Amino acid sequence: MALMITDECISCDVCVPECPNEAISEGDEYYVIDSDLCTECVGHHDEPQCVEVCPVDCIPKDPDTQRHRKSCRPSSRSLAPNCEQTLQ
Ligand code: SF4
Ligand code: SF4
């Protein structure tokens, strides 16, 4: 349950201050989202704020974290802290 930034990012910096979790930072080539911090804005906003403001629409869901969450089970919780939000 996280979003990702693709290489279409133009490094405009608009999304950074909008993130309630400070999950977005400048990467080597373009901006990146820390999947451990991104909650897709759940609990803060109805829509992901970075997606709302991005002028080039380059922030899709991260397929790796979507698959990861679906495979989470209580027995693997200690090994996968990201599971907690799914299990609550
Ligand atoms: S979806 Fe929300 S929490 Fe995730 S990076 Fe974008 S603004 Fe931050
Ligand atoms: S708003 Fe979009 S284009 Fe601008 S830095 Fe963020 S991800 Fe990149």
Quick take:
The protein is an alpha+beta fold. The chain has helices spanning 49-53, 63-70, 84-87; strands at residues 24-26, 31-33.
Descriptive key words:
two-stranded antiparallel ribbon, alpha+beta, binds iron/sulfur cluster, 3 helices, Alpha-Beta Plaits, globular, disordered C terminus, 88 residues
CATH level-1 class: Alpha Beta
Tally of strands: 2
- The side-by-side strand order for the widest beta sheet comes to 1-2
| Fraction in beta strands | 5-15%
Provide the gyration radius in Å. 13 Å
Count of distinct structural domains = 1
Bound compounds: iron/sulfur cluster
The CATH topology name reads Alpha-Beta Plaits
What helical percentage do the residues reach? Answer: 10-25%
| Span between termini | 14 Å
Question: What structural category characterises the helix and strand content?
Answer: alpha+beta
Instruction: Show unreliable segments.
Output: 82-88
List the total number of helices: 3
For the record, the CATH architecture stands as 2-Layer Sandwich
Largest sheet: 2 strands, antiparallel
Tell me the overall shape: globular
Mean pLDDT: 85
Sequence of secondary-structure elements:
EEHHH
Describe this entry's structure for a reader.
By secondary structure, this protein is α+β, with helices and mostly antiparallel strands. The chain has one domain: Alpha-Beta Plaits (2-Layer Sandwich). Helix content is 19%, strand content 7%. It is built from 3 helices and 2 strands. It has a two-stranded antiparallel sheet. It is globular, with a radius of gyration of 13 Å. The structure holds iron/sulfur cluster (2 copies). Residues 3, 18-21, 23-24, 33, 38-41, 48-50 line the site of one iron/sulfur cluster (SF4).
